[in-house]
Write a structure and sequence with these properties.
Elements lengths: L2 E4 L4 E5 L3 E8 L3 E9 L51 E5 L9 E9 L18 E10 L4 E10 L4 E10 L5 E13 L5 E6 L7 E6 L3 E6 L9 E8 L10 E7 L4 E7 L5 E7 L6 E3 L4 E3 L2 E7 L2 H16 L13 E3 L1 H4 L5 H14 L3 E4 L27 H12 L2 E6 L3 E2 L4 H5 L19 E2 L5 H15 L6 E4 L21 H19 L4 E4 L9 H4 L4 E3 L6 H11 L8 E6 L12 H8 L3 E5 L7 H23 L1 E6 L6 E7 L5 E8 L10 E3 L9 E4 L5 E3 H6 L2 E3 L7 E8 L1
Bound molecules: (2R,3S,4R,5S)-2-(hydroxymethyl)piperidine-3,4,5-triol.
Length: 729
C-alpha cells in the first residue's frame, strides 16, 4: 500500500518508487503539508516537531490553534480569511457576505485504484497498476462547505496526482472566487522556476528565473491553455542538469484559463499555486451542488530534468492518453495545408495522393477549405457540408478514390468556431460568445461558439459525426484558431457569466468524450493554430497534437525540446515541410528536415508534386528508416543530450524500455560560432555491458563506452544533422 495513515501521530505518508509526500493533522484538526521529496525511511513521531519552532513571530496573529499562526504554517489546502495572508488556494464569498473559510479535518478513506473525475480529463489506473488513492474530507463548520482533497499515488510511475471536490452541504449559495488544484511548499528559497512560454510559432520555449520574494506567475486568460504559457512549472535547484539535481514538476490536466505560480514569503518558504485562473472567475455553488476542479500531477526528481520528463512521458502516454492508438503506430500522413492552402480541387488531391503512395506515405489528410464556400479564412466555419465545386465526388467519394490508391483518408475541422459569414451564423447568431450591446472582435475573421450551451455541444457532436460518417474517414485534425474576447454567453444568467470559461471546457470535454467514444477507430489529432492548446487535458481525447505551425526544422529543435519537458514523443506531431520554409524562409537540407521530424510522429506537409523523383525516393527511404526506429522513438525513454537553448546544437535520444535499442538525433542549430570541427555527445540510459551495433553494421560499442566516452559528431556546418540507430547484440 503506497498510502499509510499513522493513527498515533495523525500523519499521512504517500510513497512512490522514489518519493515521499507527508501530511499531518495539527492537533487533529488542521491538515499541514510536512514534506515532499526524496523517499524517506523514517519520520518524526509528531506533527509539531515537523513545523517551525518559532510559532508566534512578533506581528503575527495568535493563530488558529493553541498559538500556531497559520501565516507561518504550511497549510495543505490554505483558505482565505483567517490568519494565513499569503495567496490562498481557496477563496469564497458566502451568502451573508462573509469570506472566511476555516477547514478542519472530518474523515478520510484510503482505497486501491483511482476514480474518474466527473466531467474532466484525468489520469486513470488499469488493473495491475500500483495505484492507491486517499480522500481527506475537510469542512468549514460555519458554512457547511465540505472540501474533499483527493490524492492518487502512482507508485511505479513515480508521480502523485491530486484534485479537489467541493460540496455545498449548507443552506446558502457559495460564490467560489478561487479554487486551485495545488498548493505545495518548499521549505527554503534556493530554487529557480522553470516554465514553458512563447507565442504563435514559438510555443513552449524553456524559460528560467530565480524565485524571489513576492509572487511569480504565468497564466492564461485566453480561454485556452494558449501558445503563450503552458500549465506547467518546475521548481529546480540552481544549475540542475538533465541528469543531476533536484527538480519538482507540476503539470495541470486542464485546457482552459489557468494560473501557475510561486510565492516566496517573509520566511523564505515558497508556496506553489496552480489551478483554474481566478481572474474573471466566479462559480456559484448552490446548496447540494458539488464542484470538481482539475487534476494536477506532481513529479519529484533528484536526477535532474531528464528523470522528471521521463516520468511525465510514461504516465501521460500510458495513463492519460486512451484508445486504440495509445499503443499503436500511427499512419504516416501527408497533410494538404502547406501543399495547397485553400487552392485545391479533387484532381489535385488525387494527384497528391498518388505521389504520396509512391513516396511510401500511408494517409492523405485534406486540411482546411473543403466545406461551405471556404476559399480563404473569411467564411463558412460552422457550415460543415462539402463544397462540391471543389470535390465533386463528395468526401465519401474522395475517400474511396484515395483508398483505392492504397492510402487512408483524413480530414480537418474546426468545430468550436463560427464565421459571421456562414449559414450557421444566420440561423443562430446567439450561439457565439459575445457580450450584449458590444461589437465582437474578430480573430482570423471568426467567432467562438458558446460551448457552455448544451444545444451547441449537440450541434458540434452531430456535425462532426455526420462528417465522419460520410465515408471511410480514418483521421480528424481538430483545430481551434482564436483567443477569446468580449467573453459573454447569451444563455447564462448575469450572475453566472464568470463561469463561462470553465463551462466552455466542461462542454468541450463532453463533446470530445462523446465523439471519441463514438469513433474509436478514428485517429484524432489536436491542433490550435499549431500547438496553442497542446496541454495534458487534450491528450485525454487526442493521442497526438500538431506541435506548432512553425514547421521549420531549426525552429522545431527549440519548440520540440521545450515541449518534451512534459509531453511524450508519441503525442508530438512533427512534419517534414518544404525548403525554403513557408513560415520563415529558412533553407535546410532535406535530411535535416526529416531527421528532426523523426523524433516524434513523422508526417509530411509539402507539395510532393513539385519534388523530383530523387526527392520522392529520399522520402521513401526516410519512411522505411523511420518504421525501423519508431518503436524506440515513440515508446522508448527519452534522454535529452544537448540543449539548443544552451549550445549551438540540439541532440535527443530514445532508448527502448528493455535497453535493446537506441535512436540518436543530432542537429546544428545555428551558425557555428567557432571552428570546432567536431562535437562529442555522450549517450544515456543504456545497458553498460551491452554491445550496441549500428544499423549499417559499421559501428559497435559497449553501452558503457557510449555513455562515458561518447560519439563524435563531425559535420558542424549550419543545420547539418545526423541520426544514429544502434541495436543491442
Ligand atoms: C491552423 C493550423 O495550425 C494549420 O495547420 C492549418 O490546419 C490551418 N489552421 C488551417 O486553417
Amino acid at each position: 500500500m503506497s498510502i499509510k495513515f499513522n493513527e498515533n501521530n495523525n500523519v499521512f505518508i504517500l510513497s512512490t518508487k522514489n518519493t515521499s509526500y507527508i501530511m499531518g493533522l495539527l492537533k487533529g484538526k488542521h491538515l499541514l503539508h510536512l514534506y515532499y521529496g526524496k523517499k524517506l525511511s523514517s519520520f518524526p513521531s509528531n506533527v509539531e516537531s515537523m513545523i517551525p519552532s518559532r510559532l508566534s513571530a512578533s506581528g503575527s496573529a495568535s493563530g488558529i490553534e493553541g498559538g500556531f499562526s497559520s501565516d507561518l504554517l504550511p497549510i495543505e489546502y490554505p483558505t482565505y480569511g483567517s490568519t494565513d495572508l499569503r495567496t490562498p488556494a481557496f477563496h469564497a464569498v458566502y451568502e451573508d457576505g462573509s469570506a472566511t473559510t476555516n477547514l478542519e479535518y472530518i474523515s478520510h478513506t484510503i482505497y486501491d485504484g483511482k476514480k474518474e473525475l466527473s466531467g474532466l480529463p484525468s489520469t486513470y489506473s488499469e488493473s495491475g497498476d500500483d495505484v492507491t488513492s486517499l480522500e481527506i474530507k475537510l469542512g468549514d463548520k460555519r458554512t457547511r462547505l465540505e472540501v474533499m482533497l483527493i490524492y492518487s499515488v502512482y507508485e511505479k510511475f513515480d508521480a502523485i496526482v491530486r484534485s479537489v471536490n467541493f460540496i455545498n452541504d449548507g443552506y446558502g449559495t457559495i460564490n467560489i472566487k478561487s479554487a486551485l488544484s495545488q498548493c505545495a511548499y518548499m521549505f527554503d528559497k534556493d530554487f529557480d522556476i522553470v516554465h514553458l512560454s512563447g507565442g504563435y510559432g514559438t510555443e513552449r520555449l524553456i524559460n528560467k528565473t530565480k524565485v524571489s520574494h513576492g509572487i511569480f506567475t504565468v497564466d492564461s486568460k485566453r480561454m485556452s491553455s494558449s501558445h503563450h504559457h503552458s500549465p506547467f512549472i518546475a521548481l529546480a535547484r540552481p544549475n540542475v542538469s538533465e541528469t543531476e539535481g533536484e527538480v519538482y514538476g507540476f503539470s495541470l490536466i486542464y485546457s482552459g484559463d489557468f494560473i501557475a505560480g510561486a510565492e516566496m514569503d517573509t520566511y523564505d518558504n515558497i508556496r506553489i499555486n496552480m489551478g483554474i485562473n481566478p481572474f474573471g472567475f466566479n462559480w456559484k455553488l448552490e446548496p447540494g451542488d458539488t464542484f470538481q476542479i482539475p487534476e494536477l500531477v506532481s513529479v519529484y526528481s533528484e536526477n535532474g530534468f531528464g528523470h522528471m520528463s521521463r516520468c511525465y512521458h510514461k504516465l501521460y502516454r500510458k495513463r492519460l492518453c486512451r484508445g486504440k492508438f495509445r499503443d499503436t503506430h500511427r499512419p504516416i500522413l501527408l497533410n494538404s495545408w502547406e501543399a495547397c492552402y485553400y487552392d485545391f480541387n479533387e484532381e489535385k488531391i488525387i494527384n497528391l495522393a498518388k505521389k504520396a503512395k509512391q513516396a511510401g506515405i500511408e494517409m492523405l489528410v485534406l486540411d482546411d477549405g473543403w466545406f461551405g464556400k471556404r476559399d480563404d479564412d473569411t467564411t463558412s466555419l460552422g457550415d460543415w457540408y462539402v463544397n462540391r465545386k471543389k470535390i465533386p465526388s463528395g468526401l465519401g467519394g474522395l475517400a474511396d478514390r484515395i483508398n483505392s490508391i492504397g492510402l487512408k483518408f483524413g480530414i480537418w475541422m474546426e468545430p468550436e468556431m463560427i464565421s459571421p459569414q456562414s449559414e450557421l451564423y444566420k440561423e443562430h447568431p446567439d450561439w457565439c460568445i459575445a457580450e450584449r450591446g458590444r461589437e465582437s472582435s474578430l480573430y482570423r475573421n471568426q467567432l467562438i461558439l458558446d460551448l457552455s450551451r448544451t444545444e451547441v455541444q449537440d450541434f458540434i457532436i452531430n456535425s462532426v459525426s455526420s462528417v465522419l460518417s460520410l465515408g471511410n474517414i480514418s483521421y480528424l485534425k481538430w483545430d481551434m484558431n482564436r483567443n477569446v474576447s468580449e467573453k459573454g454567453s447569451q444563455n447564462l444568467p448575469v450572475d453566472r457569466q464568470q463561469e463561462l470559461s470553465h463551462r466552455y471546457y466542461l462542454g468541450l470535454y463532453r463533446v470530445l468524450d462523446v465523439i471519441s467514444k463514438q469513433f474509436p477507430n478514428v485517429l484524432f489529432e489536436g491542433c490550435a493554430a499549431g500547438g496553442g492548446r497542446y496541454d495534458p487535458g487534450m491528450l485525454y481525447y487526442f493521442p497526438q497534437y500538431w506541435t506548432s505551425d512553425n514547421s521549420d526544422a531549426i525552429s522545431r529543435l527549440y519548440i520540440q525540446y521545450g515541449t518534451s519537458l512534459v509531453m511524450p514523443s508519441s503525442t508530438m506531431v512533427t512534419h517534414v515541410s518544404s525548403s525554403p520554409n513557408k513560415q520563415n524562409g529558412r533553407i535546410t537540407p532535406m535530411d535535416t528536415r526529416a531527421n528532426v521530424a523523426m523524433t516524434g510522429q513523422l508526417g509530411y506537409e509539402l507539395n510532393l508534386l513539385e519534388l523530383s523523383d530523387d526527392e520522392i525516393l529520399q522520402i521513401r527511404t526516410q519512411i522505411d528508416a523511420y518504421k525501423k526506429y519508431r518503436d524506440t522513438v515513440c515508446f522508448g525513454d527519452m534522454y535529452r543530450l544537448k540543449s539548443p537553448f544552451e549550445s549551438d546544437c540540439s541532440s535527443v535520444s530514445f532508448v527502448k524500455d528493455d535497453k535493446s535499442s537506441v535512436f540518436v538525433m543530432i542537429c546544428n542549430s545555428f551558425v557555428m560560432k567557432h571552428l570546432s570541427p567536431m562535437l562529442n555527445i555522450k549517450l544515456q540510459g543504456l545497458d553498460p555491458k551491452g554491445v550496441y551495433v549500428s544499423d549499417d553494421g559499421t559501428m559497435a560499442y559497449t553501452g558503457e563506452f557510449l555513455m562515458n566516452r561518447g560519439l563524435y559528431f563531425a559535420d558542424r556546418r549550419d543545420y547539418k544533422s545526423e541520426i544514429l540507430y544502434f541495436e543491442k547484440q
